[in-house]
Write a structure and sequence with these properties.
Helix content is 56%, strand content 8%. It contains 39 helices and 10 strands. By secondary structure, the chain is an alpha+beta fold. Keywords: Cytoplasmic vesicle, Golgi apparatus, Membrane, Protein transport, Transport.
Length: 865
């Protein structure tokens, strides 16, 4: 079969061969063929490994396991481990067979059963077969004891409660002379310590001395060919012992003291020129870092890691960097001594080592070493690979911002980074640089001159160009006048034309994006006031962008050219220097501790939680999206809300004030609706509409309809002719010419849902002329003494219904019925008159920081909805 499958040239041929073989195996199964059952199962295992379904052969595994002979059992157990897993119900049928085999006189059959149990044991099987496995831990044959220990590991992972039954047998395994049994015993004790505190305490008291002695004998043992690997005696056992010592010593000072000497001996005597020795040293370092404090051992461990960093093997260096990142939290000074070696790893050709070394350098930086470390990183930035520049730039910027000794150093380092890798610098970094520059008033001249020189050499770095253009626009006169020259500067001469040249060159670079070119236009506007002699040239540059295809640039160019050409008197006031930016506030905003904007409105703004509808007292404001969250909503809905919307006070305080106010209100409304200047004959009707007089109350009543859709207004008198075109622009909000309408039918309120802690009531209403649509107002009352927070109501309806849920009035429900939450629903019934409403609901809320979910179905809707 295998030969024929391998000879197939296409997947279709392979599938045909497999189908043929599976058919033959099924026929043999149905005929209960005893002689070839084990061979058929071997074929099934091969077919299973190719990825074809073999579930029909699972019962054959059980039959072979029940066979008396060893060869059949071996194939049966192998098939059991391959074709089944612990989730299969068929596995329950094999428990009794495994139990019988665990008590078999043939040790090889016992070994088969232990191997299978260790691979596919479920929690039920673990409970049933644990006594047999515990007995086998004292079996005479070491191979059986070894397999029993491995099987026990599986059992205690499946059922941790059984771990206490195995404490004494596991401790006995630690005294074994056979290395295979001892290795599995150590691993069993390690896993037991992780699942049972009782086992952990027992091993700390009873076994620590024996473990130290075993490790000492291994470290000092002479050459043993049976266990020797590269001149080291059984490195696998040594590593397992070190891991167990790590678990026992963590959090226990006495146990840690007991193992200090042997750890120092292993660390100093183990050879590091072979991979096996390096593995032992690594585990020894990990153990030293995990147990209780011993500064001398930790220095020794960090020195070993330093030797690892000098290795030519990339894997060894990588694990050393990982371990040093853990060690830095325990002994920073010891790791600082390896700083030079770690810095060399930042320049390593291997990308993984570079990245991990950079993260470690970032953790090493403090106030005392920030300057030399930053210098090394900035120097490497010049020659680093393109794919590494992004990570390196981000870390340098973070270091410079975190530990700046003085502002001039911070500015110098940031300019170096911007010059070398400005295209990799994030926006918030150069924003922060500008904030620092504005606060360093004595460095304005130095900064703008440094930027001018930098942008001449690295004009392709976009972020550098942005910062330079901004500073030239703000401090251009200091650049030209050589103001605030420091002793460390080289003198340079810059004319007004030179400064404009830099901005002009930047704006002409097509590779630069919209933000940079927009900043250039603003800088030119400011320079037109600071450099009057270049005003004409600047205006020509700005005018060139009046035909730009980018709307933002076109608009700025038109506005700025108008300011330069026509408004010279106000230009100097418009382009004054930016005020000093609050460094503390900006830093707080970046950290997320300061709100982005502070309300300056008088009075407390309304507390509107996320996801809750705004007060319905001003529906037209919401409709036109002209509301302000900083403005308190009016306490009650009155007829003068349109005046509030327009910002117009039309109260008849005096005749003159009334006329002016009405006119301004007219202009505002016409501007709002983009109508233009009203004709003379319609102005009176417009003023009438804005007037709060009783005669023209219809416009307010019309908008009242929007505020309360569940109530139907009575018939209104016809409105003045001037209102009609205005309201047409608002999509026909004007009064309907139809005759008076009567209120729709009334429906009784129903208790839609009630539990021991919550009550929900539905109130119903209909829209006139739309019987298919039902408006529901849900009211939620809290029956318990606890406050409900994060209250969310959800509903679902069948396909013949359409449901629209509005946000609730709050997300906090007061305790003991001292308040309620209301939420409006709109349900449209496409089968109105044929099918009644039905709804499933789900309510989520928190009580004492615990999530609560309540669900139900509502079938008691009034008839006719």
């Amino acid at each position: 079969m295998i030969r024929s499958i391998r000879a197939c040239k296409t997947a279709a041929e392979e599938r045909a061969v497999v189908r043929k073989e599976c058919a033959a195996i099924r026929a043999a199964i149905s005929e209960n063929d005893q002689d070839y059952r084990h061979r058929n199962l071997a074929k099934l295992m091969f077919i299973h490994m190719l990825g074809y379904p073999t579930h029909f052969g699972q019962m054959e595994c059980l039959k072979l396991i029940a066979s008396p002979g060893f060869p059949e059992k071996r194939i049966g157990y192998l098939g059991l481990m391959l074709l089944l897993d612990e989730r299969q119900e068929v596995l329950m049928l094999v428990t009794n067979s495994i139990k019988q085999d665990l008590n078999h006189t043939n040790q090889y059959i016992v070994g088969l059963a232990l191997c299978a149990l260790g691979n596919i044991c479920s929690s039920e099987m673990a409970r049933d077969l644990a006594p047999e496995v515990e007995r086998l831990l004292q079996f005479r044959d070491p191979n059986i004891r070894k397999k029993a220990a491995l099987c026990t590991i599986r059992i205690i992972k499946k059922v941790p409660d059984l771990a206490e039954n195995f404490i004494n047998p596991a401790a006995a395994l630690l005294k074994e002379k056979h290395h295979g049994v001892l290795l599995t015993g150590v691993q069993l004790c390690t896993d037991m310590c992780k699942v049972s505190t009782e086992a952990l305490e027992y091993f700390r008291k009873k076994c620590i001395d024996g473990l130290v002695k075993v490790l000492k004998d291994l470290a000092n043992s002479p050459y043993a060919p049976e266990y020797d690997i590269s001149g080291i005696t059984d490195p696998f056992l040594q590593i397992r012992l070190l891991r167990l010592l790590r678990v026992l010593g963590q959090g226990d000072a006495d146990t840690s003291d007991t193992m200090n000497d042997i750890l120092a001996q292993v660390a100093t005597k183990t050879e590091s020129n072979k991979n096996a020795g390096n593995a032992i040293l690594y585990e020894c370092v990990a153990t030293i870092m995990s147990i209780e404090d011993n500064s001398g051992l930790r220095v020794l461990a960090v020195n070993i890691l330093g030797r690892f960093l000098s290795s030519r093997d990339n894997n060894i260096r990588y694990v050393a960097l990982n371990m040093l990142m853990k060690a830095i939290t325990l002994d920073t000074q010891a790791v600082q001594r390896q700083r030079a070696t770690i810095l060399e790893c930042v320049k390593d050709p291997d990308a993984s080592i570079r990245k991990r070394a950079l993260e470690l350098v970032y953790l090493l930086v403090n106030e005392s070493n920030v300057k030399p470390l930053t210098k090394e990183l900035v120097d490497y930035l010049e020659v680093s690979d393109q794919e590494f520049k992004g990570d390196l730039t981000a870390k340098i910027c973070s270091i410079v911002e975190k530990f700046p000794p003085e502002k001039i150093w911070y500015i110098d380092q940031m300019l170096k980074v911007l010059s070398e890798a400005g295209n990799y610098v994030k926006d918030e970094v150069w924003h922060a640089l500008i904030v620092v520059i504005t606060n360093a008033s004595n460095l304005h001249g130095y900064t703008v001159r440094s930027l001018y020189k930098a942008v001449q050499k690295a004009g392709e770095q976009e972020t550098l160009v942005r910062v330079a253009v901004w500073c030239i626009g703000e401090y251009g006169e200091m650049l030209v006048g050589s103001a605030g020259v420091l002793d460390i500067e080289d003198p340079i001469t810059v004319t007004e034309a030179d400064a404009v040249d830099v901005v002009e060159a930047a704006i002409k670079r097509h590779s630069l994006d919209l933000t940079t070119r927009a900043m250039c236009l603003i800088a030119l506007l400011k320079l037109s006031s600071r450099f009057p002699s270049c005003s004409k040239r600047i205006n020509d540059i700005v005018l060139h962008h009046k035909g730009s295809l980018v709307l933002e640039l076109q608009q700025r160019a038109i506005e700025f050219s108008s300011i330069i050409g026509r408004h010279e008197k106000i230009r100097s006031a418009l382009v004054e220097r930016m005020p000093v930016l609050d460094e503390v506030t900006y830093t707080g905003r970046r950290a997320g501790s300061v709100p982005a904007a502070v309300s300056t409105s008088q009075g407390a703004p309304p507390s509107i939680p996320n996801g809750v509808a705004k007060p319905t007292s001003a529906p037209l404001v919401d409709l036109l999206d002209l509301s302000s969250d900083d403005t308190p909503a009016p306490s009650s809905f009155r007829g003068d809300f349109l005046q509030d919307l327009l910002g117009v006070d039309v109260s008849p305080a005096s005749s003159q004030g009334t006329n002016q106010t009405q006119k301004s209100g007219t202009d505002v409304l016409l501007d709002l609706l983009s109508i233009g200047t009203p004709p003379a004959h319609s102005s009176s009707s417009t003023l009438d509409m804005l007037s709060p007089s009783q005669d023209n109350k219809s416009s307010v009543d019309i908008l009242n309809t929007l505020a309360s859709p569940s109530t139907t207004p009575s018939a209104q008198a016809s409105s003045p002719a001037g209102i009609s075109p205005m309201m047409d622009l608002l999509d026909g909000f004007g009064p309907s010419p139809a005759g008076p309408e009567t209120n729709g039918p009334t429906y009784p309120s129903v208790v839609a849902f009630e539990s021991s802690s919550l009550k929900m009531t539905f109130n119903f209403s209909k829209e006139p002329g739309n019987p298919q649509t039902t408006l529901i107002e849900a009211q939620f009352a809290n029956k318990s003494p606890n406050i409900y927070s994060n209250f969310v109501f959800l509903a679902a309806v069948p396909k013949f219904l359409q449901l629209h849920l509005e946000p609730g009035s709050s997300n906090t429900l007061p305790a003991s019925g001292n308040g309620s939450i209301t939420q409006k629903l709109r349900v449209s019934n496409s089968q109105h008159g044929k099918k009644s409403l039905v709804m499933r609901i789900r309510i989520n809320y928190k009580v004492n920081d615990k999530d609560v979910l309540e669900e139900g179905q509502i079938n008691n809707f009034p008839r006719g909805l």
